Amino acid sequence: MRIRRELLTLFLVLSLLAGCGADGGKVSARDVLKQNSDADIFQYDGFIYSNMTDVEWFQKEKERYVKHHLLGEIKKQSTSRFGFKDLTATKLPIGTKLYLSSENERDLGIIIVENEETDLYYMKLLEG
To answer: Which domain of life is it from (predicted)?
Structure first.
């Protein structure tokens, strides 16, 4: 089951990266949820972030990232493909804290999410 989920996540990321769009490379929640209605995503600053914590190739990478300052908190939970806005998540509960993973405040490629059990790592999805 875990391998299937990792493959599905990897396929989703790769297929979203392969497309080209006129909207500045932004992937919408509609795009992601259309391909995977069970996706673990949230939106921040107009971009969609996908949970990469358990993806095998990311295991070695996540050690490079540490929590810096607080970016915000999840305000809404929704699985609807429509009306997905900043600080809306499909699985993260309301109030979940989001942290910058770099000292560079403009580097928002990875956002660290504070979870009760362990930190989670979400990667910005971009079209290629």
So the answer is: Bacteria
Mapping DSSP onto H, E and C, the string for the chain reads CHHHHHHHHHHHHHHHHHCCCCCCCECCHHHHHHHCCCCCEEEECCEEEEECCCCHHHCCHHHHCCCCCEEEECCEECCCCCCCCCCEECCCCCCCEEEECCCCCCCCCEEEEECCCCCEEEEECECC
Question: How remote is the C-alpha of 1 from its chain's centroid?
Answer: 21
pLDDT digits (tens, 9 = 90+) for 31-48: 999 999 999 999 999 999
Q: Return all residues near 35 (Cβ < 8 A) that are at least 6 apart.
A: 12, 15, 16
Tell me phi and psi for residue 112, to 5 degrees.
-95, 130
- The full length of the chain comes to 128
